[in-house]
Amino acid sequence: MTVRTRTPSIFRPQKPIDQGMLSANRALVDDINRRNLLRGAISLGALTMLTGCDVSEEPSVQSALRAVSSWNDGVQELLFRKQHLAPTFSPAQVVKPPRFNAYYDIEDVQPIDSATWKLELAGLISDKRPWTAQQIYQFPEQEIIIRHICVEGWDYIGQWSGPSLRAFFERVGADLNAKYVYFICNDDYTESIDMATALHPQTILATKYAGSPITDPFGYPLRLRTATKLGYKNAKWVKAIEVSNDFRETYWSERGFNWFAGI
Amino acid sequence: MSTAAVTSLARNEQRLHPLPLRIMHWINAIAIFIMIGSGWKIYNDDVILGWLHFPDAIVIGKWAQYGLQWHFFGMWIFVLNGIAYLTYGIVTGRFRQKLFPITFSELLATIDDALHFRLTHDDLTVYNAVQKILYVGVILVGILIVITGLCLWKPIQFSELASLFYNFQTIRVIHFLCMAAIVGFVVVHVSLALLVPQTLVAMVTGGPVVDGITARTAEPVPAPMPSPKPAPAPPPAAAVEPPVADSPPQGPTNEPT
Lengths: 263, 257
Description:
The complex is a heterodimer. By secondary structure, chain A is of the alpha+beta class. Chain A has helices at 20-24, 26-51, 59-79, 133-138, 165-172, 195-198, 251-254; strands spanning 118-123, 131-132, 142-149, 155-162, 180-185, 190-194, 203-206, 208-209, 212-213, 223-226, 238-244. Chain A has a domain at 84-254: Oxidoreductase, molybdopterin-binding domain (Sulfite Oxidase, Chain A, domain 2), CATH 3.90.420. In chain A, a hairpin with a 2-residue loop joins β8 (208-209) and β9 (212-213). Chain B has helices spanning 2-11, 19-44, 64-91, 94-99, 104-115, 129-153, 159-162, 168-195, 197-205, 237-240; strands at residues 14-15, 209-210. Chain B contains ten helices and two strands, in the order αβααααααααβα. Chain B has one domain (20-212, 231-245): Fumarate Reductase Cytochrome B subunit (Up-down Bundle), CATH 1.20.950. In chain B, strands 1-2 form a two-stranded antiparallel ribbon. Chain A binds chain B through residues 51, 54, 56-57, 65-66, 68-69, 72, 76, 79-81, 84, 86-87, 147, 149-155, 227-228, 252, 255-258, 262-263, and chain B through 42-43, 45-46, 56-57, 60-66, 68-70, 72-73, 76, 153-157, 159, 163, 168-169, 172.
């Protein structure tokens, strides 16, 4: 069993958030808060009566369920076949455009300006110089036509290309014996995968979909695409990659979804 | 002599539902409850049938992640208990004894009895043809739901197994249909158990004592061995069998062939 410790993220903002906007509109904010608090209290009470309590939220039950989920991480690690290839498909079966999914709507996607974007490298990597979009797009490409499977149950076949993560790691001198690879995204999303998955022959840093650069909603300029994980592990709008031996919760695992999420 | 016979009978006493079987039955009931309730929650995130959305009041887990947590916890109970049950049924010969053979003529006779309201439940130790088919059927569905479940959980690691089915959505549909079949079975099973409450009592207390010799009437009784012990007395059938209802004996159609 892996011992997991929480370490503060090196990507945590150094300066506190600017409160100027709040102070300038103090009166309005207070007014909204008072009204919403009243309304919220009433509807929350009504909701509790309607739905009752979910036993899953009981701290002891939740920690037991999460312990089983952690145990399942270990089982999945054992079941993982490092060189076993996922089925691939023909270009004719590719769905265009890919299916959008995030914890927010497609209209709320914040596009990245590739002129200023850089891929930062951190942790157990010997050459941590950041990569520009242009440099990344010049890296030898690998193409995979694989099935994307969402934890919700839907799936589609997508055609992705970009640098193989293994080749990229070999180039920058990442510690291939480290345990975890973290992806820090342009929104507040984070994901991490085990090193075995990172080195799988069908794990790439995707820059293109169906032969053209990925569009904004699907992770431009760079996203992770691995054939052996559920959709939510495939971080979009990646701005930093960190290699580490320390386990930290990620966006969805913190909220109770299974961390390993292998398929 | 008579005291010795009674002690020997008590020592070999075998109930209709032996204790391990009762334990496995109720563990399975809990596992099925967890798996179906949480499965409905997971289903709701991406419905297969546009009109079918399970109400929040009957699913397990308020949020998707709770449904998933319960499902991937319940699977261990369902699978490990299921393996124990199948092993037990095969090793002890219970499946062979209780569920087989199922003959077509027996099925016709059961249907005929049912249509003439002649089905009786005086003897809980013998299953009619419809019961046998339902029990064998639900065991097979249980195996299929685990296989499709494995394929949904690990479609890549178990890609050879998953390739037996057409594609990922086909596996989901089969997994869903197995659930529907199990729900259908549970509705019938629980309704009938409530209609004939002694079956429910039997699954708690063990039910009537079944004697090893009477249970194998089809086999020739071995000749008494020359030994200082006297040959076993004929089983006191009336004493160990459940009380027979006051109705006149039914035709031979109710008896196993």
